[in-house]
Amino acid sequence: MVTFVEAIRLGFAKYADFSGRATRAEYWWWQLFTFLGAIGSIILGSIISEEMGIILYCLFCLAIIVPALSILFRRLHDAGRSGWWFLITLVPYAGSIVILVFTLQESKEDNEWGASPCGNGSVASAIGEESETPSQESAEPQVSAKELCSKGI
What we know:
This protein is mainly alpha-helical. The chain contains six helices and no strands. It has helices spanning 4-13, 24-48, 50-78, 94-104, 123-126, 145-150. The longest helix is centred in the middle third of the chain and has 29 residues, at 50-78. The radius of gyration is 18 Å and the shape is globular. The protein starts with a helix and ends with a helix.
């Protein structure tokens, strides 16, 4: 499972990577970051002056526009859609609802944009950690990444 800090790190590390896939957790943590960052920049700037609030907000938006588009493209890829579906947001109201539905969909199986982040591996492989060797026995039951993804994690 991707944490809040990991999602921000991934968002900026893959800021111009429009290929590949992004899990629901990664996408929605990024959305929370952008919301909190926008509100924070407005409040912080407004403490100084009203104009400074607007300026800081605009600078924040400029800083995250490319990473936000790339993570949206990767999320759409994970849902089995082309990233160009983001253009539907140009249709007032209905376009945003369609994108919301697409971003809420579960991860699809392997597709043309890469392997499913919710594959058949263990939790450790889903989060990028090395799994136990077969000789090591674990008392804890293994939970598959697919089960985690079906629960929205």
